[in-house]
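Input C-alpha cells:
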C-alpha cells in the first residue's frame, strides 16, 4: 500500500495518463552539453517529503508507505519490476513468468548467479522464503493482501504466531511446499487460488522482494534491518541509515546487470515541503518540489516539469464510528465540500477536483461516474448537505445538529495540508451550524500507526498512490471483505460481489464494467470523501540527465541505471 502524505509533490508522492499507458516525464540535461562529472562526484541528492525525521522501514515485508519504497526498491531485488509503462518485466527473473491456467500456477525462472553483497546466493529458495515470510503472521506485515491471490495466503496470514516469534501455530504452518514451491534453485512455482489478472503487477510490490534469510535468522525478525550497513542485493547497498533523516545508498558493485551511473544516492527526509523546496532553491538538492502556495511561481521557472499522477487525496470516514455510521452524514460531509474551490483556490491549482476513487488516466477509469448526489458537480451541494444532516439530527440528535456527536479530523502536520483541512472544516461548519468539528495534526508515521490501531479516529486525511495501474489496486485492496486496508470498515455487499467477480475476470471489457459498477456504489455510499487527484510536479536542474518519473510516482529501476550528473 503506498499510502502517502497528502498534497505533496514529486519527491513526496505521484494524474492522468493516456488511455491504458502510464505517463512518463523525462528530462535533465537537454540544455547542458557539458560532460559527466567524475565517478567520485556522481552523488544524487534526493528529497523524501515524509513529514518526519525518518522513513518508516527498510524491511520489504513491511513497506506500506511511499517514502520507504524508494530505498527499499534499490536495495532488495524483486523478481519483476514495473517498466515506464506500468508493465511487469523480468528483473531477477530470467524471463517472463509462464502461467498455466488449468493448474493456476506461475512458473518463474530466476537468473543464475545472483548474490547478496555477503556472497550469499539469491535464488528461487530466497523468493520462496521471502514471500512466505511476508505472509507469515509472525512477521505481522500490514500489507500481506498484495499476495492474497496465492492459494491459502489469506488463511496462513491470519494464523497464530508461536511464543518463539517464528513458529506458526495453526492448520497452515507454512506456504512452502503448499502454494510456494522451488523444485530447484532457479525455479519458483506459485499456485493461485483463482485467476488473478493483476497478480504479476502485485508481484512487483516489495512484499515479493528478496529478503536476506541469513540476516533475519542471525539478528531476529525485528532487529535485522539495524544490521544492513554495507549490505544489499540490487543496484545499491545501504551505507547509512541514521534515523535522523539521512538514508545513503552506494553502488553495489556485485549487481548482476548494468551498473548504475550514479555512485551514490543521498535520500534526505523532510518534515515540510516548504523546507525541502527551500533547500532545492539554495542548491542543496538535485530535485525539488514546491508546496501548493508556491506552485504558480514554480511553474514559471525553466526547470519546472509536470505530469499526471495516479494519486487520489481523500478523507476516510470510519463507518463504524458515529456519526459516520450513517450514510446521510457521510454524504453530507462529501456534498458540503466545494472541491473546485479547494483545488483551485486553496491548493492554487496544484490538484484537480474529483469524485473518483479510480483515478483518471488508467484502465478502469469511469468518465460517467457521479458523486453522492447523482451528479458530476464538483462545486458542492451545501443545501442538500444541510438537509441530509438535519434528517440525521432529527433521528439521532434530538433534532439539533449542534447536539450530534462531535467530529475530530486527524491529519498530518504539514502546513499545506493544515491549510486545506481548515478550509474544508469551514465548509462543513457552514453547512452544519453549531456542529463541533475540530482538527488534530500529527506526523505521517504516527498517522499510519494510528489508523491501523484500535484507536482509529472517526475521520482522517490520507492519499493513495497506485502500486500498479489496475482497478483492483484501488477497489478490492481498499474495500473488499477482509482487506487489511479497509480501515474505514466500509461494507457495500453488492460492490463486494462485483469486485470479487472482476478480480478473477480475464476479459478486460467485462472486468472494467464490473469495477465501474462497484466504484459507483462505493462513491454513492461514500467509501471515501475524495477531494482531488494530484498533479505530479517538480523542478530539476539541467545537470541531471536521463531522470524519468512515472505517474506511479516512482523512477523505474532501468532509469536509475541511466541517471547521471554533468558538470555545473
Amino acid at each position: 500500500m503506498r499510502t502517502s502524505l497528502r498534497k505533496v509533490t514529486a519527491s513526496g508522492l505521484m494524474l492522468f495518463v493516456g488511455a491504458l499507458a502510464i505517463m512518463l516525464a523525462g528530462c535533465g540535461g537537454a540544455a547542458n552539453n557539458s560532460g559527466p562529472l567524475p565517478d567520485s562526484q556522481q552523488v544524487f541528492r534526493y528529497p523524501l517529503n515524509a513529514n518526519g525525521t525518518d522513513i518508516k522501514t527498510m524491511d520489504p515485508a513491511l513497506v506500506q508507505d511511499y517514502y520507504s519504497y524508494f530505498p527499499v526498491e534499490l536495495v532488495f531485488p524483486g523478481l519483476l519490476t514495473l517498466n515506464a509503462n506500468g508493465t511487469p518485466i523480468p528483473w531477477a527473473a530470467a524471463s517472463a513468468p509462464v502461467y498455466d491456467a488449468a493448474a493456476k500456477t506461475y512458473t518463474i525462472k530466476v537468473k543464475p548467479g545472483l548474490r547478496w553483497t555477503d556472497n550469499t546466493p539469491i535464488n528461487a529458495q530466497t523468493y520462496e522464503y521471502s514471500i512466505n515470510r511476508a505472509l507469515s503472521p509472525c512477521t505481522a506485515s500490514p500489507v500481506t493482501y498484495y499476495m492474497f491471490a496465492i492459494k491459502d495466503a489469506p488463511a496462513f496470514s491470519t494464523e497464530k504466531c508461536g511464543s518463539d516469534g517464528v513458529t506458526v501455530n495453526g492448520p497452515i504452518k507454512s506456504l512452502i511446499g503448499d502454494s510456494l514451491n522451488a523444485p530447484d534453485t532457479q525455479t519458483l512455482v506459485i499456485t493461485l487460488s483463482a485467476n488473478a489478472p493483476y497478480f504479476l503487477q502485485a508481484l512487483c510490490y516489495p512484499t515479493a522482494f528478496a529478503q536476506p534469510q541469513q540476516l533475519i535468522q542471525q539478528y531476529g525478525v525485528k532487529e535485522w534491518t539495524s544490521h544492513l550497513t554495507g549490505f544489499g542485493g540490487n543496484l545499491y547497498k545501504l551505507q547509512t541509515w541514521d534515523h535522523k533523516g539521512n538514508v545513503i545508498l552506494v553502488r553495489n558493485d556485485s549487481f548482476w546487470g548494468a551498473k548504475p551511473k550514479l555512485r551514490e544516492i543521498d535520500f534526505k527526509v523532510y518534515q515540510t515541503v516548504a523546507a525541502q523546496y527551500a533547500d532545492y532553491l539554495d542548491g542543496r538538492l538535485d530535485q525539488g518540489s514546491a508546496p501548493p502556495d508556491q506552485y504558480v511561481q514554480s511553474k514559471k521557472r525553466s526547470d519546472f516539469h509536470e505530469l499526471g499522477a495516479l494519486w487520489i487525496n481523500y478523507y476516510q470516514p470510519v463507518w463504524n464510528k458515529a456519526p459516520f455510521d450513517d450514510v446521510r452524514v457521510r454524504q453530507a460531509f462529501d456534498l458540503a465540500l466545494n472541491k473546485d474551490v479547494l483545488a483551485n483556490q486553496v491548493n492554487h491549482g496544484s490538484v484537480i477536483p474529483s469524485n473518483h476513487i479510480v483515478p483518471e488516466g488508467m484502465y478502469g477509469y469511469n468518465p460517467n461516474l457521479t458523486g453522492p448526489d447523482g451528479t458530476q458537480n464538483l462545486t458542492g451541494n451545501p443545501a442538500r448537505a444541510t438537509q441530509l444532516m438535519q434528517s440525521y439530527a432529527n433521528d439521532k440528535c434530538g433534532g439539533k445538529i449542534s447536539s450530534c456527536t462531535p467530529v475530530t479530523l486527524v491529519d498530518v502536520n504539514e502546513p499545506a495540508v493544515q491549510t486545506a483541512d481548515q478550509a474544508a472544516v469551514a465548509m462543513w461548519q457552514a453547512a452544519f451550524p453549531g456542529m463541533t468539528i475540530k482538527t488534530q495534526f500529527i506526523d505521517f508515521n504516527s498517522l499510519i500507526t494510528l489508523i491501523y490501531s484500535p484507536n482509529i479516529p472517526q475521520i482522517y486525511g490520507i492519499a493513495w498512490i497506485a502500486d500498479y495501474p489496475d482497478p483492483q489496486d484501488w477497489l478490492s485492496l481498499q474495500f473488499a471483505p477482509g482487506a487489511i486496508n479497509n480501515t474505514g470498515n466500509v461494507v457495500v455487499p453488492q460492490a463486494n460481489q462485483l469486485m470479487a467477480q472482476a478480480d478473477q475476470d480475464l476479459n478486460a471489457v467485462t472486468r472494467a464494467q464490473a469495477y465501474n459498477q462497484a466504484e459507483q456504489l462505493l462513491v454513492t455510499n461514500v467509501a471515501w470523501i475524495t477531494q482531488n487527484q494530484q498533479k505530479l510536479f517538480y523542478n530539476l536542474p539541467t545537470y541531471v540527465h536521463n531522470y524519468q518519473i512515472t505517474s506511479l510516482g516512482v523512477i523505474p529501476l532501468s532509469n536509475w541505471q541511466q541517471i547521471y550528473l554533468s558538470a555545473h
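Residues 1-23 have pLDDT under 50 and may be disordered. The first strand starts at residue 2 and ends at 4.
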